[in-house]
Specification:
This protein is an all-alpha fold and about 500 residues long. The protein contains 19 helices and no strands.
Length: about 500
C-alpha cells in the first residue's frame, strides 16, 4: 500500500478514526493490527519475516535483561546478541544479497575460466526489510548497552518494529525515542488541534514533493538515463541534476508523510532530512541526509570500530568501512558500493586535508564568514553530491563512467535553446510546472535553513488566511498537477527497494 494511493487515502482515515474513539487500552493492539495489515498489503507471505525478526529480537532483549540482573558473564551476553544478529542479518543477506553474491562469485570464476554457479535465488525482496531489520537490531544493542530496558510487552514491542508510518522506508527509529513513547500510548492526549493540523500540513507537503515534483521529474531522468548513449552533455547534466532533486523529493517526502501521520496519532518521529543540499561540506551533508541511517551507522558501527580514537589513519579506514557498508545497504549492486566509496573518499580526503586548507585560507586571507565563501562551499559540495548520484542511479559502474565521459566530451550547449530539452519526457508546459514546483521547494527549504523550523511551524507564525492559502494551493497542485503514473498507477517510492 503506497502512501500516494487511493487505498491509503481510505485506509488512513479509518485507522485514525477508530484510534481516536476506542478505549485507550486497545490503542496499541489496534495500531499493531493496522500496521501488519499495511505490510501484508504488499505480500502477505513476508509477514513471516518481520514476525521472525520481531520474535527473535524480543526474546534476545529479555535474555539480555535476565543476564544483566543475574550479572552473568560477558560472554553469555555476547553469545546471545551475536546469535540474534546472525539470524536477522542472515535473513537480510539471503533475500537481499543472495543473487548479488552468486553474480559476484560467477564474475570471478569467469576470469579464471571456471564453471559458474547456474542457480539463482528466486525470491522477491521484501519491502522495507533493511529498515525494520536495522531498527530491531538497534534495539537489542541498546538493551545490551543498558541504554533502554528490555520490553516485556510483546504487543508493544511488535508495534515498535512494525509501526506502519515508518515501517517500509524509515526513519529508522531508536528504541529510546519511539519505544519509550509507545510505553505511554494510553496517556497520549489524542485530540490536540495544533498537533493534528501540524501533522496534516506535513503530510500535504510530503505529497506535493512526491506527486508534483519527484514523479514528474522522474520522467525526464528515466528518459535520459535509460538512453544516455544518445545524449550529450546538456541532457546528461540535466538528468544528473534531475535525479538529485528526484531522490531528495522522493525519499524526503516519504519521511515527511511518515512524520506527519505519526504526529497526528501523537508520536514524534525523528527528523530524517534537514535541507541537505544547503550543506557546506560532505560531513555536513551526511548530518542532514538520511539522518536516521547515518546516525545508526555512527552509533552501531563507526564508534564500535574505534571511531576517531585510534589515530587519523584508523579513522580513515573506519570511515571507508562505514560508507562502503552504507552503499551496500542501499542495494545489492556494485554501483551502490561505488557510491558509498565515493562519499567515503570525500570524507577521508576532507578530514586529512583540513589543516592544509586552514593554512591556505589563512595565508591567502580568505574571508570565511561572508556570503560568497559560504555560497562557494555549498556549490562545491552540491557538485560533489551530484557526481556521486550518477553512480547511484546508473545500472552499473561501467554505465556511470560512460555517462560521465559523455557528459565531459560530448558538448551540446545548443540543447538549451533549440527545444531539445522539451523532448526529454516533459513538454514545455510540464517543464514550467516542474520549474515552478522546484522554486516552491527551494523557498520552503530556504525558510527551514534560515529559520530552523519546518513548514508547519512557519505557517503557524502567519495569519490564518495565509496558512489556508498555502494549503489550498498545495492541495490544488497535487490534484491538478500530480503525476499518477501510467494508466493512473501510483509511482513506487525509490527507497522501497532498499
Amino acid at each position: 500500500m503506497q502512501f500516494n494511493s487511493v487505498n491509503f487515502m481510505l485506509y488512513f482515515p479509518i485507522v485514525i478514526g477508530l484510534y481516536f474513539v476506542i478505549p485507550s487500552k486497545w490503542r496499541k493492539m489496534w495500531l499493531l493490527l493496522a500496521s501488519y495489515y499495511f505490510y501484508m498489503s504488499w505480500n502477505a507471505k513476508y509477514v513471516l519475516l518481520i514476525g521472525t525478526s520481531t520474535i527473535a529480537t524480543y526474546i534476545c532483549g529479555l535474555l539480555l535483561s535476565k543476564c544483566m540482573k543475574e550479572k552473568a558473564a560477558v560472554w553469555k551476553k555476547k553469545t546471545i546478541i551475536v546469535s540474534c544478529m546472525i539470524l536477522n542479518l542472515g535473513i537480510l543477506a539471503v533475500f537481499k544479497y543472495g543473487n548479488f553474491t552468486i553474480d559476484s562469485v560467477n564474475a570471478i570464476l569467469k576470469m579464471f575460466h571456471m564453471n559458474v554457479i547456474d542457480r539463482k535465488i528466486d525470491l522477491l525482496l521484501p519491502v522495507g526489510i533493511s529498515f525494520y531489520t536495522f531498527q530491531a537490531l538497534g534495539y537489542i544493542v541498546d538493551v545490551y548497552r543498558g541504554d533502554v530496558e528490555a520490553e516485556k510487552d510483546f504487543c508493544r514491542y511488535a508495534l515498535f518494529v512494525s509501526f506502519f508510518p515508518q515501517l517500509v522506508a524509515g526513519p529508522i527509529e531508536r528504541s529510546k525515542n519511539l519505544l519509550n513513547q509507545m510505553r505511554g500510548i494510553e496517556k497520549i492526549r489524542l485530540w490536540n488541534a495544533r498537533r493534528v493540523t501540524s501533522g496534516a500540513i506535513l503530510m500535504v507537503w510530503g505529497f506535493f514533493m512526491k506527486m508534483v515534483i519527484s514523479d514528474r521529474i522522474a520522467l525526464l531522468v528515466n528518459q535520459v538515463f535509460d538512453n544516455y548513449r544518445v545524449y550529450g552533455s546538456t541532457e546528461l547534466i540535466l538528468a544528473a541534476l534531475g535525479f538529485t532533486v528526484q531522490i531528495y523529493c522522493d525519499f524526503g517526502s516519504y519521511s515527511i508523510i511518515a512524520i506527519g501521520a505519526a504526529k497526528i496519532m501523537g508520536f514524534e518521529l525523528m527528523e530524517n532530512f534537514n535541507t541537505p543540499y544547503f550543506a557546506r561540506n560532505i560531513r555536513d551533508f551526511w548530518s542532514r541526509w538520511h539522518i536516521s541511517l547515518s546516525t545508526w551507522f555512527k552509533d552501531y558501527l563507526y564508534i564500535p570500530l574505534g571511531g576517531n580514537r585510534k589515530g587519523k589513519w584508523r579513522k580513515a579506514l573506519n570511515l571507508m568501512i562505514v560508507f562502503l557498508v552504507s552503499g551496500l545497504w542501499h542495494g545489492a549492486r556494485w554501483n551502490f558500493v561505488a557510491w558509498g566509496g565515493i562519499h567515503g573518499l570525500y570524507q577521508v580526503i576532507g578530514d586529512l586535508s583540513r589543516h592544509t586548507k586552514e593554512k591556505i585560507i589563512k595565508r591567502l586571507q580568505i574571508k570565511t564568514e561572508c556570503m560568497s565563501w559560504k555560497l562557494l562551499q555549498t556549490v562545491i559540495t552540491f557538485s560533489l553530491v551530484v557526481f556521486a548520484w550518477v553512480f547511484f542511479r546508473a545500472d552499473s559502474i561501467t554505465d556511470a563512467l560512460y555517462f560521465i565521459k559523455r557528459m565531459l566530451i560530448r558538448q551540446t550547449p545548443w540543447a538549451l535553446f533549440d527545444g531539445t530539452i522539451y523532448t526529454l519526457g516533459l513538454d514545455a508546459t510540464e517543464m514550467n510546472i516542474l520549474i515552478f514546483s522546484i522554486i516552491v521547494l527551494l523557498l520552503v527549504d530556504l525558510i527551514k535553513y534560515r529559520k530552523k523550523i519546518n513548514l508547519d511551524e512557519f505557517l503557524f507564525e502567519q495569519n490564518i488566511w495565509f496558512e489556508w492559502l498555502v494549503l489550498i494551493v498545495l492541495i490544488g497542485m497535487i490534484f491538478v498537477f500530480g503525476e499518477y503514473g501510467p494508466a493512473f498507477d501510483v509511482q513506487q517510492f525509490i527507497y522501497f527497494q532498499f
